[in-house]
Amino acid sequence: MYKISLITGDGIGPELSDSAVSVLETIHDKLDLKFGITKLSAGDKALEQTGKALPDDTVSAIKQSDACMKAPVGESAADVIVVLRRMLDLYANIRPAKSYPHMPALRDDIDMVIVRENTEDLYTGKEFSLGDSSVALRIISEQASKRIAKYAFETAKMRNDKKKVTCVHKSNVMRVTDGMFAKACTEVSKDYPDISFEQMYVDACAMNLIRQPQEFDVVVTTNLFGDILSDESSQVVGGLGMAPAANIGDNFALFEPVHGAAFDIAGQNIANPSSFLLSIKMMLDWLGTKNSDSKCFEVGQKLESTIFNLVKTGVKTKDIGGDKTTSEFTKQITDNL
Amino acid sequence: MYKISLITGDGIGPELSDSAVSVLETIHDKLDLKFGITKLSAGDKALEQTGKALPDDTVSAIKQSDACMKAPVGESAADVIVVLRRMLDLYANIRPAKSYPHMPALRDDIDMVIVRENTEDLYTGKEFSLGDSSVALRIISEQASKRIAKYAFETAKMRNDKKKVTCVHKSNVMRVTDGMFAKACTEVSKDYPDISFEQMYVDACAMNLIRQPQEFDVVVTTNLFGDILSDESSQVVGGLGMAPAANIGDNFALFEPVHGAAFDIAGQNIANPSSFLLSIKMMLDWLGTKNSDSKCFEVGQKLESTIFNLVKTGVKTKDIGGDKTTSEFTKQITDNL
Ligand SMILES: CC(C)[C@H](C(=O)O)[C@@H](O)C(=O)O
Ligand SMILES: CC(C)[C@H](C(=O)O)[C@@H](O)C(=O)O
């Protein structure tokens, strides 16, 4: 049995969490892959109720689980997710972007993944105000850069795809920090002679994601650029409705949708749970690898194809042109699993 | 007579410069707006020949001119343009993105402008290596933030458009520096009650530029985000072929295309000079305002409409689906002026 900790989140978070629980329970009952789920609070509501966006008992429960699922969190998101990423050393943020049938992608042949360094850059919270001026430290280390580069090349190796890693940076302006990042990636690339390696400035990348997204395979980049480029690439393949993310460390991982808490549609039972459910698929793959459990891969595959078959046949939520509610769409999935 | 300094650049730079000179000379001869042009060297070639990407006599010639035109520069671009922006305090980088007929824009109703702070952020070159780690200082000041905010609101006031300013930042992560930027913009917004003001995180903006670009009017942002988002928005309206930029200070201004030196097509007489020629139009508007010279506006208008009428009737360069060479396209413009 896998112990899953589940942060139920704010806004549409609780609805997506209900959907995820129902899918995990169905897998448990019908497909004989066993889960124990612990619901946890973190985010705006937790902050209001306990004074802490990330309560201590939430952290300890996460640490006792095999993997964490995190629904979107509101305004206090940074106090939850940035802290967890660093605390648990979840150094690789993996964000696939793929054109799926019947989604409004810019092209139908996009299949890429952004591998975002998840622990440093401008996300370490080292900022100071000096009267009329302020300064934030952008920290890049060789060790973290090499570690994420290695992850990117391993990812490229496993994909049946273009076998290409694109290192995105702005070393023409940030010669020292992005110089270090680019150099680390270049060095790691030498250990992977079968994978082609290219470098691209972040501004050019923002452009090329629209101009020729089909050319990308694996993109490796620093934290903040990864944040920006992954939101962009999600939209390039048709929006945040189908955009899962994995935060992966050497011993633990946390899965979440790329999108936020969407307060404007919260409580209406219309949110698209697909991004969150596809992050379950990412979790199953990760558990499968970690525990050499082929059952996890099988079930993950089945979950993904169930979602896409439904979307393909027009069974979908409002945001992507359908008429199904969150719970109706979830029920279709559990019925078909 | 207006004294124009012209950095002829690298790659396709010299070809674009020939095109620009021929347009300026035609304006001088046919439309009776007088120019004196001084060609200057800066960039990779200058570095090779003089040991300096930005030679001293180039700088002094620029300072003696009324405005500077800068063709794209190669690998040493940052040593030229970032230095000039800061040295001449050209604090506002203005990058319009507009859908034009017969250009492959994502939609045909996009009309926005990015107002990018041009003197600070991660562009001040303050970077240090500390063994295995490195750090870059991201510097944001209240004074520079207010100055660019004011420029953005003044821009919005003059546009016959949505009268909206969107302030783009990442203050949920960079609370101090982007907190300062957001606060400065919010304060300045109070002086402009007729212009609506909204804030957006940079990742959401990267997404919304594809999802609903028609909603934007004026975007104001910090230096590096402006770099990324303006390349993205150029592509949203169909590519860098028609993307001019103005670097504006209180007393001087420099005009350039958003695109780079494109070494892959250099010397072939196929580059699209439109971005550079449209930056002449931006220069004419700026000279017109500065010198209360209505002739400049008239001529600028004429130049812009000449370019668009040609493109509309299929007279265009290869990059946007035409068959004209750089010089053929330029000749069509000068014939029609
Ligand atoms: C909520 C925010 C701190 C976070 C980030 O910037 O990493 C989010 O945008 C994301 O991409 O997961
Ligand atoms: C060449 C480079 C330093 C420059 C920048 O980043 O500002 C360019 O990309 C631009 O946008 O003008």
Automatic annotation (TrEMBL), chains A, B:
InterPro entries: IsoCit/isopropylmalate_DH_CS (IPR019818), IsoPropMal-DH-like_dom (IPR024084), LEU3_arc (IPR011828). Its cofactor is Mg(2+). Its EC number is 1.1.1.85. Keywords: Magnesium, Metal-binding, NAD, Oxidoreductase. GO terms for biological process: coenzyme B biosynthetic process; isocitrate metabolic process; L-leucine biosynthetic process. It holds the Pfam family Iso_dh. GO terms for molecular function: 3-isopropylmalate dehydrogenase activity; isocitrate dehydrogenase (NAD+) activity; magnesium ion binding; NAD binding. Residues 3-333 form the Isopropylmalate dehydrogenase-like domain. NCBIfam families: LEU3_arch. Belongs to the isocitrate and isopropylmalate dehydrogenases family. This is Isopropylmalate/isohomocitrate dehydrogenase.
